[in-house]
């Protein structure tokens, strides 16, 4: 079944399936509602739902992408001219999120293949020149798409921490002693004058700090437009878990995050860049986040993309994320394979993938 937006889908039924599938914030009905309300680009919702009888057994959020700053940046890395001018692409579901692809309930593995086939059918109906999956984690689904002839490229890496430890002390004991002592020293030095806390952040502060950090890196704010950030803030409020660092002048840094199910995703960073260097408050904020996760019902802490050396020092493990694309036109398919090869080479040249400091893919 093809749906033109989450407004026509029962929120509780959708979210129940996502939770039972182990899905995260980026599959939540509310995340999709925010994206549809104020997208960072021009997107047309085209979500796929798989039923067995009357039971919803699988979902695959997807958008027909007419314009996306992240996708345009990836297009710009291609030696093949005119990729962005060929028309819309159907993607499941967005380069903005930290994961993509179909979700199916246990015992319904065939539904995943049906959803992928449905993606191709929807692309034909919607007149997309290509279709595929964005930010697909390495695993069985990636293998399925490779066997189906998709052009595949590793475009980013998301970093996760298993937080199912009895206590923070036991988690820290898993790190080498010398590294642990160095991290604690850096936390003390860089957190001087700062108070670290978990809180709910107001939308104005979230927008200001996120845009300050983007500008400090020379990144256009169209990857996270103000209207989009405000829609996220409003729709995802029930799941918010944000970590901030505050000084005498107010909130100086943030990790805006949301927990859906057992995974807490820290997705949007922000910083009063005129006052602090990039990593100055982050060490103490990261340590606080890990301890908050260990002492709550969080089982996985998703630290997102970028800053790979810092995250690995704190014990995070990288999960490769892939872009997989296909076209019904053989010439277009050849261009996609060549482009994905170029993206793969560019991605492998950096631990952060496709220049996520300048354009978060």
UniProtKB/TrEMBL annotation:
Membrane spanning residue stretches: none
Domain BioF2-like acetyltransferase residues, every copy: 178-312
The name this protein goes by in its record: BioF2-like acetyltransferase domain-containing protein
Organism: Sphaerimonospora thailandensis
